[in-house]
Write a structure and sequence with these properties.
alpha/beta, Quinone Oxidoreductase, Chain A, domain 1, Rossmann fold, 7-stranded mixed β-sheet, 6-stranded parallel β-sheet, binds NADPH dihydro-nicotinamide-adenine-dinucleotide phosphate
Length: about 325
Amino acid sequence: GHEVHLASRPHGWPTLENFHLVKVPVPDPGPGQLLVRNVLMSVDPYMRGRMNDAKSYTPPYALGEALDGGAIGEVVASETDAFRPGDLVQHGKGWREYAVLDERGTHRIDPTVAPVSAYLGPLGGIGLTAYAGLLDVAALQPGDAVFVSAAAGAVGSLAGQIAKLKGASRVVGSAGSDEKVRRLLELGFDAAFNYRDQPVRRSLAEAAPEGIDVYFDNVGGDHLEAALSALRLHGRVAICGMIAQYNATEPVPGPRNLALTISKRLTLRGFLLHDHLGLREQFVGEMSGWLRDGRIRYHETVVEGLENAPSAFLGLLRGENLGKMLVRL
Ligand code: NDP
């Protein structure tokens, strides 16, 4: 089998040279373990942080070793009663063709409930991030006006649709191309703009002339600054990600209008998905229903072949994805 190793650490934007495709023997599962052949893997923005040698909420990838991340595999051999060959499982050892897994951290998925890929998207951590960010972190209330950035991406496109389903009065999304803006309107966003057209602050003021109550932040930077200007009294910001700065080589300046948090009594709250797993059951129940009824739609951008996983990841950082970026092995 093959796996993708971290060849070197990027300074600024990563390149293909930072990755290395390596041929390795297919490993043997030990007692209590299983061997899977991966069929699908996820590339995610947080992986950029793990390419740095910096302490964070997940350990850095090691040089000369395989990267890892969310994946779905088919069980090839099992040394545990819990799984049988042919089972489809979700696990954390992506970026490789074959993986040996412990029972712990491996979850069987049911391909009759939803397409397999949905477990790496709307039905998985991506969906839960959007759901928890809106409901737990931003305490969304019916009637709120909501702004979502990176809205044509995996988390953002779900966040916008969930906000509508939960009674938001107006949902505005931003994205990096006119085509993505068109797709957002198709998904039911009330307004959407291309953030490359003019300053975000101006576009947001036009799209939400009466202001916003909630900002779901995937981007940081100019988007966060614009949102602070647009937020109304007691507005809330769920800080999910700040992708605009993941490749920065120097500390980036904070929003220049942060003092608005005082006069408007704003709440800005960062969060990690892992702290909201208590919502999972409720989330899966609600999301399964929405997907079944067609009330939530989702896009995927699928790249073929493990050897193309590095370019899929680089493409994700550049915005080449509509919806979830996935690699099919
Ligand atoms: P996306 O599918 O949204 O892909 C990333 C998108 O970011 C790209 O498609 C691109 O779209 C956009 N983007 C890239 N650079 C910029 C920029 N400089 N300014 C504005 N937009 C940019 O990825 P995910 O849905 O997986 O993740 C979205 C965010 O959520 C990320 O910030 C991620 O780190 C965060 N996240 C946080 C979690 C948590 O627990 N807190 C869990 C999961 C994700 P475009 O063409 O529009 O520029």
